[in-house]
Automatic annotation (TrEMBL):
Signal peptide: none annotated. This is HAD family hydrolase. GO terms for molecular function: hydrolase activity. The keyword Hydrolase applies. Keywords: Hydrolase, Magnesium. Coiled coil: none annotated. It holds the Pfam family Hydrolase. It comes from the Bacteria. SUPFAM superfamilies: HAD-like (SSF56784).
């Protein structure tokens, strides 16, 4: 038996900030590593082909595929990861415009948490953009020390919010790191179809989350309706 909705958790890349911020970081990292190898920048169209394949699959390692295609070996993925982390920022102007209206609609009704694989610098970006005052739980992987899809980050966030899984909903844009691990623990799931979500999701993919939405507009009432339906 599921009770009232008491907590809403949000992934950052996709739901809150444009995933193109990550794309810019990974392209900058690839170009720098290639320059050090004495070769030219990554072909952008070839990059988009691989990026779209990994988005469509909703699984597998993007960094592994990119290292294999553009750095000569899949074994260079850790190097690519380190170079990407240094470049990954969320510039002003990349917050989705539906974020603050959504958070205002939830304000005072539920606990709200960040639940994301992000660097600690994301906190300063969320403060700059006026999101931080709405956040009760800061589940930022680089700070907490656990990464999605590991259940530990979800369990940490639930404990911090003081709620059980059946009282919470997780909103994310990936099946492999958001929807599936959240559903496995018993949270409600919302799949936001932007950024790293597939360009064209299949019917089978769309059937995985409790709710699939194009963005956060009008989502607050839909969350309470979803929770009522889970009860
Ligand atoms: Mg994401």
């Amino acid at each position: 038996m599921t009770g009232a909705l008491r907590a809403v958790f949000l992934d950052v890349g996709g739901p809150i900030y444009d995933d193109e911020n990550f794309v810019a970081a990974v392209l900058g990292a690839l170009d720098a590593l290639r320059a050090a190898d004495g070769v030219g920048p990554v072909d952008r169209a070839a990059f988009r082909t691989i990026y779209d394949e990994v988005r469509s699959a909703q699984g597998g390692s993007l960094r592994g595929a990119l290292a294999s295609a553009f750095l000569g070996s899949r074994s260079r993925r850790a190097e690519l990861h380190a170079e990407t982390r240094r470049r990954w920022v969320h510039p002003a102007g990349t917050l989705y415009p539906d974020v603050l209206p959504f958070l205002r609609a939830l304000d005072g009704r539920v606990r709200v948490g960040i639940l994301a694989n992000q660097e600690a610098a994301v906190i300063a970006a969320l403060e700059r953009d006026g999101v931080a005052p709405y956040i009760d739980v800061w589940g930022v992987s680089a700070v907490v020390g656990h990464e999605k899809p590991s259940p530990e980050l979800f369990e940490w966030a639930l404990a911090e919010a003081g709620v059980t899984a059946d009282e919470a909903v997780h909103i994310g844009n990936r099946l492999d790191t958001d929807v599936r691990p959240a559903a496995a623990l018993g949270l409600g799931t919302v799949w936001v179809l932007r950024g790293e979500a597939p360009p064209v999701p299949t019917a089978a993919q769309l059937a995985e989350p409790d709710l699939a939405v194009p963005g956060l507009d009008g989502l607050a009432p839909a969350l309470f309706a979803l929770q009522a339906g889970r009860a």
